[in-house]
Specification:
- The structure is a single chain.
- This protein is 38% helix and 21% strand.
- The protein has 234 residues and is α+β, with helices and mostly antiparallel strands.
- A five-stranded antiparallel beta sheet has the order 8-7-11-10-9, with helices on both faces.
- 31% of the residues are buried.
Length: 234
C-alpha cells in the first residue's frame, strides 16, 4: 500500500455510483480491491502501482465519471485543482465559462482571481467558505468549493441570472437560499443534484423545498414551476 488515501466522489451521475454494491452519497474512502460500478461499467480500484502516487487521484476518477455518466451535459461545471494550484481536470462547461468570464486566462489554466480566492481559504472548512461571485452584464458566475480530498480541491461552477433570483426573493417572499434551490428546481435538477451544486445536504434541500411549497401554496414541483414562470413573466 502507498499510504495515500484515495477518494471517490459522485458529482452528478444519472444512476449513481456503486462501491461494492452500495450507492455512495458522500465522498467515499477507497480500499484496494473495491469494485466500482458507474452505469454499465465496472472498475476495480488498485491502491498500488504507477497511478497511486497521490497525484491527480480525484482528476482520474472524475474523468472516468465524466466519460461514463455524461457530466458534460449538465448545466454546471467542475474543476479539480491539484496541490500545485493548477487545474488538473476541467469539464467542458466549466472551460467555456472560465474562458468567457476570464478571457485573458490561457485555456485550461486557473484564473489568478480564483487562485487568490482559494489561497485565502486554504485552511477554512468547506462548509464555511462562501462562493466566489464573478459578475458580468446579465449573469454571474458562482464558484464553490465542493470538496477537499487527497490534497486536491473540487470546485463547482454555476451561472445564474441575479435579476431572476431577486424577483423570486421579492415577489414570492423567499429567502436567498430558498430562491437558489428553487432556481435549480426550475432547471430540472433533482434534490441530490441541487445539494451537490450548493454544497449542502439533501435533507437541507428537502427542508427548504417544503418551505418554498408552503409559501407558494403548492404541493409539488410542477405547480411551483407554474408559479415561478408567472412571477418571472414567462
Amino acid at each position: 500500500m502507498d499510504g495515500v488515501q484515495h477518494w471517490l466522489v459522485d458529482l452528478g451521475s444519472t444512476n449513481g455510483v456503486l462501491v461494492n454494491g452500495h450507492r455512495i452519497q458522500q465522498p467515499h474512502a477507497l480500499r484496494h480491491g473495491d469494485e466500482i460500478h458507474i452505469g454499465d461499467n465496472r472498475l476495480v480500484f488498485h491502491a498500488a502501482g504507477p497511478q497511486s502516487d497521490g497525484s491527480g487521484t480525484q482528476a482520474r476518477w472524475i474523468k472516468t465519471a465524466h466519460a461514463e455518466a455524461g457530466l458534460s451535459t449538465l448545466n454546471y461545471g467542475i474543476v479539480v485543482v491539484g496541490a500545485n494550484g493548477r487545474a488538473q481536470f476541467t469539464t467542458e462547461r466549466a472551460r467555456e465559462w472560465l474562458q468567457s468570464y476570464f478571457p485573458k486566462t490561457k485555456r485550461d489554466s486557473l484564473p489568478d482571481e480564483i487562485q487568490r480566492w482559494l489561497a485565502q481559504r486554504a485552511g477554512s472548512p468547506v462548509a464555511s467558505c462562501p462562493p466566489l461571485i464573478v459578475p458580468s452584464e446579465n449573469y454571474r458566475l458562482q464558484v464553490r468549493i465542493t470538496e477537499r480530498a487527497d490534497h486536491e480541491v473540487i470546485l463547482t461552477l454555476t451561472e445564474e441570472s441575479p435579476a431572476s433570483m431577486q424577483v423570486l426573493v421579492a415577489r414570492l417572499g423567499l429567502t436567498q437560499r430558498e430562491a437558489e434551490i428553487l432556481h435549480w428546481v426550475i432547471e430540472g435538477k433533482s434534490n441530490s443534484e441541487t445539494a451537490t451544486i450548493l454544497n449542502i445536504s439533501v435533507r437541507t434541500v428537502d427542508k427548504h423545498l417544503q418551505n418554498v411549497f408552503s409559501k407558494l401554496g403548492v404541493e409539488n414541483r410542477g405547480a411551483a414551476l407554474r408559479v415561478v414562470m408567472y412571477a418571472l413573466g414567462r
